[in-house]
Write the structure tokens for this entry.
Amino acid sequence: MSEAVQAQAQLKSAKKESSTFSRVFRYTLIRSIMLLFTVVVAIFLTIMIANMGGKVDEMQRGMIREDVSQLARDNKALQGTTTEVRMEWINEQVRLREHQQGLDQPFMTRTVKFMTNALNLNLGRALRMTSAKGSQMVRDVILERLPTTLVLFGTSGLLLFFGEIFVALMLSRRYGSFADKLFVTLAPSSAAPAWFYGLFLILFFASYLKVLPFGGMMDAPVPQGWVGYSLSLIRHMILPIFALTLSQFAINVYTWRTFFMIYSSEDYVEMAKAKGLPSRMIESDYVLRPTLPTIVTAFALTLIGLWQGFIVTETVFSWPGMGRAYFQAIQFYDTPVIVGMTIIYAYLLMITVLVLDFIYALIDPRVKVGDKGGQS
């Protein structure tokens, strides 16, 4: 009898595991398809906007004809020939160049082909921009600028994020204190962007006091040895990080502090205090743990947001990163570079959103992946 009961229990357990796997697999598949569809729509719109509905193509055709016409004027073999012969040569060269760039195909056909290549991470060649080594491949243009952005914004982003959480948690325990009132007062100062503070910091510390560089990433000539190189890099990072801190720290601390205070006033926290539990245990188990999904989400979005940098801030500080490259691509109407940066960010965002669903299930027992109403 006991063996039959045990066998039945094992069968139920196997069915439950199979059902769980099936539910998670089905949810993952459906979620991935939905997110991929969103990425496709976003990339298609990006291509349309970056190409201005075909206006950039017309500009490309105009520049091709202008370049070919200049070559015809400098071509000694065409000197002394008739206008018809020269025009025939120009039209043939224009046709060949337009064919090389695919400009002889219908706009929508090229857009769909361009989008398909982008989704496959076949980013192609840039129209105007090049890497420091002279490569026009979009991949090389992006990879060359990515490390410099991660050095600056990775360092500042992670330091600011964990610093904001720490200070906000401290202020939530000291509601009404001088420090709490100070951050509440300073919160509106974050209305100004980082580049706005950057202009004044450059004016004061670089132009007036002459103690810090105006911009760039490294002194010229580049210092020899890793010690001198590191010190020069740190000096150039001080003003951008200071500007980012002035722009973001106060308002983010105020936001997190209010968030922690809301959870600190819950009934179960008051009950834990009444039981005489240590304050550290209350913070870790009753305040931080329920807010962990929100903290993890903010941290993940911070990480994927770092790689793009800040367009205007990098431009103000002449920082050779992704943000400045994005700005240059917009200036040059370099659609492949714009789409390349957008598609990578879209994929990172899609993967992050998908992974976060499973992280929520790991850190919050109430969340069941794939259950109706349990997970959105």
